[in-house]
Specification:
Length: about 150
């Protein structure tokens, strides 16, 4: 990855951390799930308003490192309007990016997380909100913990 692209990607992450999108409880949520990363203290709650099989709206709340908070913010912008199957496919793509560093050829905000693969402990930070969102889609009230996922 070129230095210019790396810097641009870092700016995307910093922007989502400094100005998180869709942060706070969603009053119209009909699905909620929580995530916990005990190894570094990240916590994330995801609030979904599901209409049929489509995510009409979603938000997140929590605390943690810049990677976890930026990733949760970005996740909300990516999943809004998607079906459960589309959300799973987006997570699979995101997971591939953060574990291998292989970002899509076209410029995308999720590609900003490609550098996470060089810091294996941060992969759990980056995927925490996504795991909570997937649990919310399944209506699974169990708190997701990074200790139960092999990221």
């Amino acid at each position: 990855m070129s230095a210019d692209l790396t810097e641009l990607y870092q700016q995307v992450i910093l922007d989502h951390n400094r100005r998180p999108r869709n942060r706070g409880r969603l009053p119209t949520a009909n699905r909620v799930a929580h995530g916990d990363n005990p190894s570094c203290g990240d916590q994330c709650s995801v609030y979904l308003q599901l209409e049929g099989d489509r995510i009409k709206d979603l938000s997140f709340d929590g605390s943690g490192c810049a990677i976890s908070q930026a990733s949760a913010s970005l996740m909300t912008t990516q999943l809004k309007g998607k079906t459960a199957a589309e959300a799973q496919a987006l997570y699979d793509q995101f997971h591939e990016i953060v574990t291998t560093g292989n970002a899509p050829d076209e410029m995308s905000d999720i590609g900003a997380f490609a550098g996470v693969h060089t810091f294996p402990a941060r992969i759990k930070c980056a995927t925490l909100g996504w795991h909570a969102a997937l649990n919310a889609l399944k209506s699974d009230p169990t708190t997701v913990t990074t200790e139960s996922h092999n990221d």
